[in-house]
Each structure stands twice: as structure tokens, then as C-alpha cells.
Amino acid sequence: MTDTTLRQALAFAAQGWPVFPCQPGQKIPATRHGYLDATTDEDQITRWFTRHPAWNLAVATGAPGPDVLDVDQHGPAGNGFAAFNTLHRAGLLDGARAYVATPSGGLHAYFAGTTQRNGHLPAHHLDFRSAGGYVLTPPSQVGGKPYHLVKALDGRGGLDWGTVTQLLEPRKQHQRPEPPHPAGSDIDHLAGWVARQNEGNRNAGLFWAANRALEADHAADLSALAAAARQAGLEEPEIQRALDSARKAGQTRPCHGDHQAEAVR
User: Which distant-in-sequence residues (6+ apart) come within 8 Å of 199 by Cβ?
Assistant: First the structure.
């Protein structure tokens, strides 16, 4: 596996993704400081994977590396594909650049890297790897089973974990407080609340507010929310993605029992 692993590691490094080795057949880092040792230095990478041909290859997630959505497969205990398909139908996965199958039967979806925190939705069997995280990549193996590329895509967008959380668990206000008063169908009230959101909350806040407005009236005019988001400092492409996702989410219902990801069929 030496030549293949080294070539892949150097290819990742060439596109700016820091890499590091893990123990053979495991997810345990082979270096003292783990993902903190990740590098794009070709000489260091070559030494690692030439001297230790059985080492697995890991990529440090979060900018400048990728963000990765980890869709878990826990056998009888459940899997994350129903939630994955919900996100796909809502348009939240449109920016994916690759899908990688994992040894357990799960899936990794790769996105443009950000400085978001790692996330975990155990009820939906989903994990989010960003700043301070890492994932194994092909041709790494665990339990004799390899990671392998399922599909390379043209997407170069990101995944907003706050928006994912709000779609899958709307009653849990992660990283964002509830509005001080019930908003109901009052667009002006919702817009005022969106306008007050700080960086880090703006995207998820707009998505949440749009969902509340559409729950009250599926044909609601969301232009006031868009204007409020601009006032809060959100860029136009992010505004449109959040509103489009809210409109799609209103038509979305999880497909429980799905064992394959619709998006990779």
C-alpha cells in the first residue's frame, strides 16, 4: 500500500490539505501529537510513508483541510442515512466535493473547510469533523476493510452545521438562544430578531426564522427576513441558500429505514 498511500498523501498536500499517519489498521495517530503534526511538507510526508508502509493516512479537518460529514452505520442500533437523505433533499449537501465509503458501511461527505467546531448528533448517527478533528481517507483500512471513493463531485461549497442541527433537531437551540417572545407568523418580529444575530449564529438563525414563517404560511414572503440577514452582515449567497433550504425543508420528511444514501445512487 506504500506507493498508493504516499501518492494520495502528496496529492492532498498539493491541494493544501495537511495529512499525518495513523497506526496500521486503526484510527489512532502514529505521531506523538496526532492531528497537530499534520503537514503539507512533502519531505516529511515521504519519510513517514516510505519508512512505515502499513500506516493509515489521515487528513486534518477544518480549514485549510476539508470539513467532513460522517454518516455512521451502527448495525441494528441504527444508521445516519435517513438523516443524510433529509439533508440532501433540503439542499444542504449541494456543495459536497466527494463521497467516501467507510469500512463500517457508513459514508464521509467532504466539503470546503471552515473554522466551525466539531459536532455530534447521536440520535441521528451523524458526526461533523471540522477544526480540531481528522478522518481516515483512502486507501486506509480498518479491520481489513478499506475506505474507498464512491463519487467525486464538482461541489466546492461548505456545510453549515448550525443549519443541519436546526433542521434535524429544531427544538434544540444549539449555539443560539430562543427569541425572547413567541414569533408565530409575525414576519416583522422574526426579521427584527434575525437582524440582531451575531456572526456564527446568523445563518442558522435565518434558517430557523424562515422555517417558523413558512410553518405559519407556506407561501410567506421571506423578503423581510432576507433584508434583516443583510443587515446582520450575511452575504447574499448564504441568504439564498438558507431560504432555499427552509423552503425545501418544509416539504421534507425523513425516510426511516433507508439503508443507502439517495444522493450516491
Answer: 233
Lowest mean pLDDT among 75-79, 109-113, 216-220: 216-220
The tens digit of pLDDT for each residue in 169-219 reads 886 544 444 444 444 447 888 888 888 887 667 778 888 888 888 888 888
CA distance 265 to 255: 15
Same domain, 28 and 122: yes
In a domain? residue 256:
no
Give per-residue pLDDT as tens, 3-51: 899 999 999 999 999 999 999 999 999 999 999 999 999 999 999 999 9
Same structural domain for residues 26 and 130? yes
Tell me the three cell numbers of residue 161.
Answer: 452545521
In terms of domains, do 135 and 180 share one? no
Residue ending a domain, among 102, 128, 158, is 158
